[in-house]
Sequence to fold (577 residues):
Amino acid sequence: MRLSKMHLNTLREAPAEAEIPSHIWLLRSGMIRKLASGVYGFMPMGYRSVRKIEEIVRSEMDAKGAQEIHMSAIQPAELWMESGRWYVMGPEMWRVKDRRGREFCLGPTHEEIFTDIVRNEVSSYRQLPLNLYQIQTKYRDEARPRFGLMRSREFVMKDAYSFDRDEAGLDNSYNEMFEAYTNVFNRCGLTFRPVEADSGAMGGSGSHEFTALSEVGESEIAYCSSCDMAATTERANTIDAEAENEAEKALETVHTPGAKTIDEVSAYLGLPKEKTIKALLLAVYGEDGTAKEYVAAFVRGDRELNMTKLVNALGIPEHMADFADEDSMGAATGSVAGFTGPMGLRNCKLIVDSELPGLKNMCAGACKLDHHAINVNYGRDYKADIVTDIKKVREGDACHKCGAPLKLARGIEVGQVFKLGTKYSKSMGAYYKDENMNECLMIMGSYGIGVTRTLAAVVEQNHDERGIIWPVAVAPYHVIVTVVKQDDPEQSGLAEAIYKSLLANGVEALLDDRDERAGVKFMDADILGIPVRITVGKKAASGLVEYKLRRESGFTEKASEEAVAAATEFIKSGGAL
Ligand code: ATP
Ligand code: MG
Fold:
């Protein structure tokens, strides 16, 4: 492609809203353009890279025997009502009505649709296992769309759904997809880690997220410094503090004026934070947005609440729970902002972290203004409706598998695989007949890759202060031939010859034949991040050019044929040289 003919508009500066490198560089390189908050379009270069990722995904899915189909983004509400998710999904689901008032949604995911297809078209064990996938546009009205393609409201996802006869079949399908994902993200040039994950609204028994490591990522993972344990922090567990065998002392109420936070009360009473109990007050909201139930959650004072574990313990979707206004719930429950403890609460569900019952003589709010209770003991002084692990792991906490210290890291969730089991086949009636003509439920899995988020993750991991540095596999073009003076016939002639040789070698080449200053051309080549640049300048008359890799700072002078050969070899090696 000749840049003089290409629709390309690089920006000297990024729009103010772009905060992270991938967003900045995808905008500045003219690869994407914003239409509305969380809604982006792809320009020629950007769309080429999207299609490269799609092709990588496609080839790895096909290699595992998955079959590509393409379903509509518009999904009838009835299917979601059958699965029960029409209400579970909350405001993230983009709901629309047709002119007759029939309800639809713009698909945020496609479990219901694929289950519907398969229940109608598959009836015998001979047709299983089956894995169907699509690469398709998804819609989620995210609460906080941000970071460009990273969290957008319209995005491209590869979603696959497997249907098996039994659990062993599902395990096999899941492992195959796990392998396919590993291959996909390796081929995209990402540094990533598969980690155990929570299954969230998807339901089901097991899940892994594929996390591209990045400081700006919105996912947090915990991994063990010694064993192979790695999980999202939503999911990760640690070992509970050891139960204490101190004698239980007499319960007392003490005056703690103005000491509302754990820091304040532990300083005021001279107690370590580990001897305090932190209260977190939540409301479970109904469909109409009013609080239906209050929940008081308690963790050791030095710990944080893990919201995912909490909503799992309550058996509700995450969007239905939120922190409550302590003052307004006080009348109903007896809570007192800053002084709430597990004793003296009413009309309120108590959830206590699993390590608290073993800890003796703790300090907690007394549900009385400016007062705390000390020597609080579980069983004697308070009891919970639910005792379970609801704490967040911290760096250095003991790994629940081996006891070694945990480490934390941030990352971008680029893919997730789920063992769904029978959640959808049961609610939607997806059966097959086995060898003995018995009706059996299909066992399902679902597998997603964020194609456009992957593009952003690749840029996040591959850029410098001048622009993108594409790995060869997802670069929009492989080589850019930059002509220093387009109106010098020697230069433009040699550049043209190089460009043609590259194309003849199967290299995806760009010819920067624009009537621009050399500085502008170099700057654009760097922003665009094309892996190889061949610069044709003053020495064109003697057939010499500059050969430069985007990822390296120096260049070498080569005869033009040599430069073509080197570029071709570099690209054929996938950039490994
Ligand atoms: P997140 O936790 O980041 O909101 P999710 O767990 O809800 O993501 P899944 O339902 O697992 O997402 O969707 C499969 C994949 O689709 C994700 O792994 C991610 O790569 C991609 N994805 C999800 N939401 C978005 C979004 N808003 N913008 C871009 N990609 C997304
Ligand atoms: Mg996910």
About this structure: Residues 109, 140, 142, 151-152, 155, 157, 413-416, 448, 450, 452-453 surround adenosine-5'-triphosphate (ligand 1) (CB under 6 Å).
